[in-house]
């Protein structure tokens, strides 16, 4: 009998080289992906676009991925896998550079300001332009030279380049995971394959940490750093008009991704096989494929036939069988809804921290990278460890995943109580008489003599603790100083006597938020950790609830469905709902509504958290029939196993009886022979 050869063993130095290269590629793609999410508010302000368009840009990565995933999955294993991964990394790098391209095309960033930009200037700037209406434009501003380049800019928005670059990133990312993991599995020993895959996944968790930290660093730097004198900039990183050096991070991420492609060009297509792989070295999935009959949906090799018509003939019945599996279909619906909630929440969480708790974009990104992401990684690892220690079966894994998600859901309800008051902005959140928000006009008696524009956003903080939309609407007639140190005086709306002053920027009003923010962070870390505990058991439920021969198709279809129905739409409709809570929109340089300057924090909190938890509630309701179906499936499998054991037991009993009969007959014949010998 021929002894099957073991799996091929590749040189240790080669394994290490490919492992390091793939880990670096995982790190690069995770870093650039998380950096994209960290620049959401920067892109909104720079391109003057609402949140729902940012959602379209963010979802375009999944669109690019879906465009080529079928092609890569089918042809990738037949071609030179390391070089295909290298091409993917180069495409990701080019896409990242394209995202940064608009910064070098559209010129310098301009924002509304009444403060003097010239240091030590003796020119007196009067925000309140008192005079006859004949000297002013219809909008209430002094005549200005029309902005140049508006004709071309109105026809093609620069954010299109960001969208196309992100699509290209999605296309380039597609081959990295499936081809990289399959290459490791094919050309390493079984005992090392799991270890190598675990190392790669661990590195991929480190990537988002550095991505958000890079976003925090770049958000502190002014967008036009190196091209303007910083002393002439009149806003700070906490201002709603501030735009950080978003493009710098994309250049850094692009270079890192490009470097990750280099090692793959020098790796061989395959390693020499020392012999055919024996059945005892195959996985349960491969063994089940070998046992399939011709009537099953796949061939004995576990692959579909080469001919396209035959491929369709085998594929669609298999897919129909998979989607007809009630437990798998229920699990698919639950995870799609859960991922809608998760993706929407994670995409806009830094923005929620900025707008609701009035933190800078730099601090929000820093906290996401240092606190939230490590908590998620620790939760996923601990979940897998607990599942191993507790030796959970499929029902135990389902209950564990459901329980952790439910606990996280209950804890998330406390976020509703962690509220901050709306910023006190005259004419926006309260009237000039300090009455709470109810569609108050920005024009009143104290600024009636000033010809101001209602569309400008140039906030100043009065001595009375109230923020005014602009120095003009605050009734200020004089100013002193320059840049961030500009002080406006004789502001008629600030005080009755008209002798009160106002400084640039919004009033802090952070006392209540500063007290609540640490509790928000602590609860956020706890809920992230608890929900992540169920990630690994939930994934194992997906693998174990179906037949082994359907596992690969089930995983592939699950990825396709979640990316299509969760990864693409969730950022879009979350952004649209957030836009509905905007109180004051910015104005584009060439006309039209730009990015939101201030939100109704109460409405924002209810919309953001309400949508997140509503989706989770729906998923919990679907889980109820899911548990019933899973229980029935396990009961049926147990009955089949018992019947099979009884059938096997009956066969063995009959064999034992035959053996006893043969032995007894032989003994009897032996006794008869002895009697004959005695007689003789």
Automatic annotation (TrEMBL):
Q: Which catalysed reactions does the entry list for this protein?
A: 3,3',5'-triiodo-L-thyronine(out) = 3,3',5'-triiodo-L-thyronine(in); L-thyroxine sulfate(out) = L-thyroxine sulfate(in); L-thyroxine(out) = L-thyroxine(in)
Q: What residue stretches are annotated with the Kazal-like domain?
A: 440-495
A single Gene Ontology CC term: basolateral plasma membrane
Compartmental location: Cell membrane
| Keywords annotated in UniProt | Cell membrane, Disulfide bond, Glycoprotein, Ion transport, Lipid transport, Membrane, Transmembrane, Transmembrane helix, Transport
The membrane topology of this protein is: Multi-pass membrane protein
Give this protein's Gene Ontology molecular function annotations. sodium-independent organic anion transmembrane transporter activity
Annotated Pfam families: Kazal_2, OATP
The answer to whether keyword Transmembrane helix applies is yes
So where does this one cross the membrane?
14-31, 52-72, 84-106, 193-214, 247-267, 328-346, 366-386, 398-418, 516-542, 554-578, 606-630
Identify the residues that the record assigns to the Major facilitator superfamily (MFS) profile domain, covering every copy: 18-635
**Gene Ontology BP terms:** lipid transport; monoatomic ion transport; sodium-independent organic anion transport
Family (UniProt): Belongs to the organo anion transporter (TC 2.A.60) family.
NCBIfam families for the chain = oat
Protein name from the UniProt record? Solute carrier organic anion transporter family member
Origin organism is Scophthalmus maximus
